[in-house]
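Quick one: structure tokens for this chain, please?
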Amino acid sequence: MRLGTMNDLDIHWLFWHLLYRSALRRTRCISCDMKTYFCRINAGCDITAETFFGLWRERRVAIHYPWTKGKVPDPKSKRPDTRSTNPNDFDGSAARAVRKMNEISKCGGYILVEQYALLPSGGRQRRFMVGFIKPGSKIELFQGRWGTQPGRTAVLKTLRLHRARVIAEAIPELNFGKPRQGTITEWRAAEDLVERLVEGKSLRRSVRNLTPSQAEVLCSEFLRSPSRAFRQLRIESLLAPVGRTMHGVDVWGIGATGTDIIAQVTNATDERIIENKLSKLISVAGDSNAELVLFAPQRVKINNSRIHQVPIEIAFEQFLAISKGHRWWNRLRRLQPHPLRHAKSLPRPRR
């Protein structure tokens, strides 16, 4: 039997080859999930203004770490920067950062880069860039100059961004929702946000598309707004900042009768997560007469008479139905007040 110019052996080989490639792709998808990351290139990175600008202009994610394991960090040393990209050659925070670079190199992912760039004038300029790193990207060594040692070559480990865009600082999530520690780290809370910024996607109207901190703000504003169904839970004034500052509590305020109102917010449906949040709420309230509130998906069922359950979907729709909620949602959909700029059109840093 023949098919064009292919004989039976050719067809047999092609069949098994395609089957193998298909299995290989499935294996890669299972073992290598694409994630979202945050990279901070801050003032502690001892490189010149021109090196900062070169990284920015060429749309590179970068880490420095010039010393390998066992080498004493000495900014005055004349020893050349290491060119290693093997995490086993480093220890501590350097090993974690290099290992994360290798992970991103292999699996790819979306990333937000925050750069505190040194300016020729001696000042600092903070700027943000988002982009996509293709799976299988190579870690490239980028040569610049040390800032405190004129003439000394700085060797940075970098990955190139694709579909890179520069964004304004006027996005609350980028100012208050970033990971607080680490040079380069996974950023689960901003997965949808960073992807939308890179791809230019609009925000679909669903509470599921809110980041955890946005959901917390939504619920705090809902509790401060009039609602016939939840009138006894209306907060007149907040007693603490919303979100990450308190263990086990997302919203804490005082109602019209002087009673404290304490709330937890989640989009999770896992029973263990829900039970953990309920126990934290009860623990925080202690023996007080505080009103305890759990915002959770409608499918979640709790059996605790002390806790008011508010479906987070209802809070979302009722808040967006009033004028201030409508303005809030429109502001989130715009993502930022100014259009995104492609990184190719970047001007040189201000002097």
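The two ends are 74 Å apart (CA to CA).
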